[in-house]
């Protein structure tokens, strides 16, 4: 269904090329990539495959019009960050010419490429994991680690659902989900496009360093979840939250805990001893699995 939602925002010939892909292949597509003057491609298992049709610059403009339902002005706040969320939860990222004012990006124009990331919900993949993240009934602060495209967001979303709804004998918790880029819950006009659990409150489109104290003040969460820690301000906000007694769940681009130690920012995070467990996502022959690593001994 989400594959068809992604195809629906493509202009004519590109839409037909995507829908011509055999049904058994559609479930494997992770991204649809458009580059002006180049062949339309799909990403499957980390490799791009051509679809036999050339993308024109006008196709990229048409894509933006279709995604925004011909109202770019209404979507400018997210477009200036380089992406838009479409109905069904898929995210469209754009490259082109940035419109700068006073050092800040105000808009995007003259698109040169775009990528549609196919959102996936995989119910059940985290149920065996969720119960292992508790000690004596308390949630243990946990990082999810994997390289870019390694499945962190999908696993995070499913873990949030499990923690919120409760599973395998664990009662549901109140989860505050900071969805800075609109990928996790895919809120559209106030409606969540993704299932993130019945006890989950979502703050969409807000920087993590600002959103985390807001959630603590307003929503009284038991667990706070965020995607992709990248800034020192994120770490400071999460450290503050940990000191308030809230459980933390977050993702980072890293292959394993050893890689965290090679990066100064994440060494600082580990030194703060905020997180105790790491879930490391592994991929072999196209199949993903995970293992737990202790960060504090």
Overall mean pLDDT stands at 90
Helix count, DSSP H or I runs of 4 or more residues = 11
Q: Low-confidence stretches at least 5 residues in length (pLDDT < 50)?
A: none
Biggest sheet, in brief?
7 strands, mixed
* Structural class by helix and strand composition: alpha/beta
Q: Within the largest sheet, what's the order of strands?
A: 13-10-14-15-9-16-17
User: What's the SSE pattern?
Assistant: HHHEEEHHEEEHEEEHEEEEHEHEHHEE
Kindly report how far apart the N and C termini lie. 45 Å
Count every beta strand, where a strand is a DSSP E run of 2 or more residues. 17
Share of helix, binned: 25-40%
Radius of gyration: 20 Å
Q: Based on Cα principal axes, name the global outline.
A: globular
Please indicate the percent range of residues in DSSP E strands (runs of 2 or more): 25-35%
Question: Can you walk through the features of this model?
Answer:
Helices cover 30% and strands 33% of the residues. It is built from eleven helices and 17 strands. It has helices at 2-8, 12-19, 23-26, 57-67, 76-79, 127-130, 152-165, 208-219, 232-243, 257-261, 264-271; strands spanning 29-35, 39-44, 47-54, 83-85, 91-101, 104-117, 134-135, 138-139, 142-146, 175-179, 187-188, 191-192, 200-204, 223-226, 247-253, 277-284, 287-294. The strands form four sheets. The protein has a seven-stranded mixed beta sheet, sandwiched between helices. A six-stranded antiparallel beta sheet has the order 3-2-1-6-5-4. Helix 8 (208-219) runs parallel beside helix 9. The mean pLDDT is 90.
């Amino acid at each position: 269904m989400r594959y068809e939602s992604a195809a629906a925002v493509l202009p004519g010939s590109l839409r037909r090329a995507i829908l011509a892909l055999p049904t058994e292949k559609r479930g494997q597509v992770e991204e649809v990539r458009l580059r002006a003057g180049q062949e339309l491609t799909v990403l499957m298992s980390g490799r791009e495959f051509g679809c036999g049709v050339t993308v024109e610059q006008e196709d990229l403009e048409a894509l933006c019009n279709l995604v925004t339902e011909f109202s770019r002005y209404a979507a400018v706040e997210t477009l200036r960050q380089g992406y838009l969320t479409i109905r069904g939860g898929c995210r469209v990222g754009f490259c082109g010419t940035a419109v700068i004012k006073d050092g800040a990006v105000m808009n995007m124009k003259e698109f040169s490429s775009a990528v549609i990331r196919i959102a996936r919900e995989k119910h059940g993949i985290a149920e065996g994991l969720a119960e292992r993240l508790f000690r004596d009934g308390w949630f243990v602060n946990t990082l999810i680690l994997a390289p870019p495209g390694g499945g962190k967001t999908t696993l995070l979303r499913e873990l949030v659902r499990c923690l919120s709804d409760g599973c395998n004998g664990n009662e549901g918790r109140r989860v505050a989900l900071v969805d800075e880029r609109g990928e996790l819950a895919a809120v559209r006009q106030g409606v969540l496009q993704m299932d993130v659990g019945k006890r989950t409150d979502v703050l969409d489109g807000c920087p993590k360093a600002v959103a985390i104290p807001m959630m603590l003040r307003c929503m009284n969460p038991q667990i706070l979840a965020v995607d992709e820690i990248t800034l020192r301000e994120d770490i400071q906000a999460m450290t503050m939250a940990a000191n308030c007694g809230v459980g933390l769940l977050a993702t980072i681009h890293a292959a394993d805990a050893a890689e965290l130690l090679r990066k100064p920012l994440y060494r600082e995070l580990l030194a703060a001893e905020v997180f105790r467990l790491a879930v490391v996502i592994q991929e072999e022959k196209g199949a993903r699995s995970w293992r737990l690593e202790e960060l504090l001994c």
